[in-house]
Design a protein that fits this description.
With about 70 residues, the protein is of the alpha+beta class. The protein contains 3 helices and 3 strands. Strand 2 and strand 3 form a beta hairpin.
């Protein structure tokens, strides 16, 4: 029996959407980056893609420093 895709750990230097979400970026933003061609998958599965950390880092930094981004309130 193989490990389901959602439980596989990406190799070093690669991030899953859940890892990017742990940085505070909503999964919808990650999907938008992919849709707009700013971020490209480098593996994983169709439902649980992986992304290169070197590609993710500048996008996350720009998103966190954007004064116009929406903030959630609890």
């Amino acid at each position: 029996m193989t490990t389901p895709a959602r439980y596989r750990l990406p190799p070093p230097g690669v991030l899953a959407t859940r890892d990017i979400a742990a940085m505070g970026v909503p999964p919808a933003i990650v999907r938008d980056w992919v849709r707009r061609g700013r971020l490209h998958r480098c593996g994983g599965s169709p439902h649980y893609p992986w992304y290169r950390a070197d590609d993710v880092a500048p996008l996350v930094a720009a998103w966190q420093n954007n004064p116009r981004r929406r903030t959630t309130t609890s």
